[in-house]
Amino acid sequence: MTKNLVGARHGIFAVLGTVLALSLSTPAHAAPAASTAPPSSEITVEVVAANGSGCAPGTARVVAHPDNTGFRIRYHDFVATAGRGSEVTAGRKNCQLGLLVSVPAGWTIAVAAADYRGRARIPTGATGRQRTSYYWQGSSETSHTDATFTGPYNGYWRTSDVAPVLVYVPCGQQRVLNVNTELRVDTSTGGSSASMSMTTTEGDVDTLFNLRWERC
Q1: Closest of 114, 142, 117 to residue 210, by C-alpha
Q2: CA–CA separation, 109 vs 7, rounded Å?
Q3: pLDDT score of 197 more than 70
Q4: CA angle 131, 133, 134 (to 5 degrees)
Q5: Exposed (0-12), middle (13-18) or buried (19+): which is 110, by Cβ within 10 Å?
Q6: What pLDDT band is residue 158 in, cutting at 50, 70 and 90?
Q7: 190: which of 34, 55, 73, 134 lies 20 to 30 Å off by Cα?
Q8: 32: how many CB neighbours lie within 10 A of its CB?
């Protein structure tokens, strides 16, 4: 996992860890040196469940890439705030999404990497945190990203999670990919305010999942 900071003047961060696990009911595959070309048939990705203070109904949507290499999640109003004028509960926002990924017959997929992007304004003495986990339905294993930002920080942020082992959906089955994201900000100075969001103003993807394909 890597973490890149964009537009920061004094960002200090720590990346605590990434864990990706073994398979659902089929053996895990080591990541091949070269990716199998994705099928030409269109895949679909549908939000089948959305819960949490960071994704009110209708504020999260998912779009599949036309070349079938992955999909992106866009959040319309996923912002955590703390400090002046903010409610206590506004300092932590979370969103749990259930995504049904449908692939052509004869193919299976795994999540190879994930990128998370947003914007933060964190004054001196305050901190921000982004935590995301995802797992396939039926699996007890979870891939986990946890990053902390320490003020002063003002600009775009980005974290990345690369899977060391690929976990494929069993052939011929549809599974829901559960994605749980949390944003948290904390400021010890009542006169200051801090915010962290999964939205950007420059058109960047907020969350991007890259897929790896294999024939069954």
Answers
A1: 114
A2: 34
A3: yes
A4: 155
A5: buried
A6: very high
A7: 55
A8: 10
Q: What local confidence, expressed as pLDDT, does residue 32 receive?
A: 39
Angstrom distances, CA of residue 170 to CA of 9, 107, 144, 177, 178? 46, 10, 22, 13, 16
**Among 108-112, 195-199, 205-209, which is the least confidently predicted range?**
205-209
C-alpha neighbours within 13 Å on the C-beta side of residue 16:
11
What the block records as the tokens of 119 is 């914007």
Q: Give the Cα separation of 11 and 119 in Å (integer).
A: 12
Distance CA 55, CA 77 (A): 7
Please name the residues in contact with 1: beta carbons below 8 A apart, sequence gap of 6 or more: 15, 17, 18, 145, 159, 160, 161, 162
CB 126 within 8 A of CB 151: yes
What is the band of 205 on the pLDDT scale with cuts at 50, 70, 90? low
